[in-house]
Design goal:
This is Alanine racemase. With about 350 residues, the protein is an alpha/beta fold. It has 3 domains: about 45 residues, lambda repressor-like DNA-binding domains (434 Repressor (Amino-terminal Domain)); about 120 residues, 3-Layer(aba) Sandwich (Rossmann fold), CATH 3.40.50; about 140 residues, Rossmann fold. It has 12 helices and 12 strands. The protein has a 6-stranded parallel sheet, with helices on both faces. Helix 5 links the parallel strand 1 and strand 2. The termini are far apart. About 40% of the residues are buried.
């Protein structure tokens, strides 16, 4: 059974004011000469009557729906990248907006359907997101209205929010140099497809550039580089075992992500070596498991929450141009020590 819904006229009548005056109060419009007591009467009447504004009517009048589309590949169902959505949700709520989320699973046909459905609902703008930091081809339908890319860039210079992976590479090197590591630093996770194809990854090339530049400025280079087919624990394990078979064991290892570092920990333990007494380890991403390793893994975290927030802010402010980089923060735990004598 449907109940009669309180109208603006009902609120105005209860407050003893005109509809125009009540509307101005409820919509927070400046310029009313009503007393503070009159404002209180309007809000009290609205609460007592359970008044809810007619969003559809307001949208026709203001051409704003207070909704934002969030379209991604696999962000919503990926535990690791879900904080992108959390940050966007928080920022949208603070701006009195609602986030409409669609995940495409990489299906181009469904992506087009989802985008059409979002645009049909007259969203105020679109956040187009990726789970892995990479360059995207933006569907033509999104280029005609407000859009911000999240964790991604495009060749057409659309506004975007990405993590500062190059500075993160420098941070990893600085953490090791500060503890006295200089000539025997190894890198695990070189991967030419990731480094050379921005549509696969932007992070790999940026992290590598930051690492190499920081080492060059310190007057040193990597003592070992291990290539890995994927950035998974088993590949980190295999790469570390290969490095240990050679002479001149490194005093420190930089892993291109935490999952590689998980494998490195296992290979070192199998060889009877301790972190950080024998080999220090630092990596990137701050996977939740990193804090549970023993010793805890020092890693440079992806600022997903801050990135999601920033994307919403840029979209609603409407002044964004080009890329916005968000700093990555070092999570200092116990995996970095001074080199063994």
């Amino acid at each position: 059974m449907r109940h009669n819904r309180a109208t603006l006229a009902d609120v105005a009548r209860r407050a003893g004011l005109s509809k125009t005056a009540a509307s101005m109060v409820l919509n927070g419009r400046e310029g009313t000469r009503l007393s503070a007591e009159a404002h209180q009467r309007v809000f009290a009447a609205a609460e007592e009557l359970g008044y809810r504004p007619n969003v559809a009517a307001r949208s026709l009048r203001t051409r704003k729906t207070a909704t934002i589309a969030f379209v991604s590949d696999v962000v919503a169902t990926t535990r690791f990248a879900g904080d992108l959505i959390r940050g966007a949700l928080d920022a949208a709520r603070e701006r009195d907006h609602v986030l409409l989320i669609a995940e495409t699973q990489g299906d181009a046909a469904f992506e087009q359907h989802a985008i059409d459905a979002m645009l049909d609902r007259q969203v105020d703008g679109v956040i187009y997101a990726a789970m892995a930091t990479r360059r995207l081809t933006v569907p033509p339908a999104l280029r005609t209205g407000p859009v911000v890319l999240l964790n991604a860039t495009s060749s057409d210079g659309l506004p975007c929010v990405v993590p500062d992976n190059e500075r993160a590479g420098r941070t990893a090197v600085a953490a090791l140099l500060d503890r006295g590591h200089h000539d025997r630093i190894a890198l695990i996770g070189r991967n030419r497809p990731k480094e050379n194809d921005p549509e696969i990854s932007l992070a790999a090339h940026a992290r590598l550039r930051g690492i190499q530049d920081a080492l060059a400025e310190a007057g040193t280079t990597l003592c070992r580089e291990a290539f890995c087919h994927e950035w998974l624990p088993e590949h980190g394990f295999k790469a570390m075992r290969t490095i240990l078979r050679r002479s001149a064991r490194p005093t420190a290892v930089i892993c291109m992500n935490d999952r590689l570092a998980f494998g490195v920990y296992q290979a070192l333990a199998e060889a009877g070596l301790a972190v950080p007494d024998d080999v220090s380890v630092v990596s990137f991403d701050d996977d939740p498991i990193a804090a549970w390793l023993r010793p805890g893994l020092s890693t440079i975290g992806l600022p997903h929450v801050q990135m999601g927030r920033r994307a919403v802010e840029l979209l609603l402010d409407g002044k964004a141009t080009g890329p916005t980089t968000v700093p990555m923060t070092m999570r200092r735990r116990s995996s970095i020590g001074s080199p063994a004598a």
